[in-house]
Amino acid sequence: MKKSLFILIFFISIASVFPQTVPVFLLKSVNNQLSIEKIELAENETKAFIKGENSENISIILPVSNGISGDFSKAGDKSVMIARFKDGKLIISVQKPDGTQKELVSKTPDELKNYDIKVNVTGFKTKKVFNISNYDIITEDNNSPVIDMFQGKIPLGEGDYSITTEITEHQDSFNLKGEFETEYYAGYYFTKIKLNNDKTANVIIDLGAAQSFLTKDVIPEGTEIHSIFAKEVSSDGTRLVDMPINGFGGKIENLTSCEIDSAEIGSIKLSRFTFNVIDSFKNVKGKKIDGIIGLDILSNAGNISLGIPKENSPTIVNLGNNEFAVKDSYIIPFAFSHGHIFIKGKAANTDIQFILDTGSPFNFLPIQIAESEKIQLEKSIDVYGADRIRISTHKGRLNNLDLGGNLFKDSEFHFTESVIFENYGLTENGGIIGTDLLKNFRRLAIDFRAKKLYLEK
Fold first, then answer.
1. Virtual torsion, Cα 418, 419, 425, 429, nearest 10 deg
2. pTM recorded for the entire structure
3. Which of 3, 124, 331, 432 makes a 20 to 30 Å CA pair with 25?
């Protein structure tokens, strides 16, 4: 009897080693309508997808790894992409003109199910965003901006497509909880962070930063600093390339990172967290900025309640309190894309995608908006981002500002040619909501599950 039981368990174990199927996602254009088709592959099954020469197929979505990747599909270029499910792995390859194949991706279903993928597609006359949740469920995303990592610099003809893919780890639960104090100074929200139970640094709470930063001089002694590279995958092979990130005036090059054993922000404790490292930030009115606390930390709370601090009047930031009360507030839906909070709105009559940015003391719009809406301007200050590039601005007042269907009157904006809008493919319809607007409210609350933020009056 024991022997029979052992044999039965053994056969069950063997049968469940590999899933029966694994999906592959094919981006297509049918009658000029973009769509993503989910195709299931059985174990040991192989399928080939021909691109170009009037094919409906544009590209297979490549689940390479966490991060941002780009693809360009040209209508006249014929190629073959091959997907197979073999030995418990999804393998995606491209076939070269000489018939040889180059492997691009090899992942197990367990690795893939942890992926959430945002697919931004820019065509000659069409734009669309898709979400693939848990590497399973496809939905159209009508709230997120269509991001083009090529910044519109690649000319597109009929049938050409620029594809920007963002892969993040799927998050079923949010586990960051606690609170800390913040104070207002020169338009920024400052708090303190303690590193390895030793150094204390002044950092700003930056809801416009996808990543968190520390300056080199506050990093605890003995901490290893590593270069940051991106993996470039193509039919010619795989190579490591520098991975700059977007700053207000341009890109921050030659990035490095470090892992801090322990970091404390008020009652919040982080273990072995990776920070980007930067030489320095520009001082603000004599006060030194030692770092930035970005959304890679804050969004892990699921929700944020931030009392808006005033001069000489600090407040509390509470993370992870699922029962925070919201009363007498403007309710504004948002999209979370490329590590940023995007709000659909209008500047006068122009549709805008605003980035919520508490790392900015000012509200910003492209200079083209002032020209098209005939807004009277006056020369204003020069501003700097983390990249330390100087940007000239002009100041004007916007009579009507719409944020998610909520109307705000007579708001001050700075108008500029900042390339941060261009970096996201939003040259003429991108904007920034900074602390200058938030100072009019008592509290900002953000619910990352429901994708809503609240401005308490």
1. 10
2. 0.83
3. 124
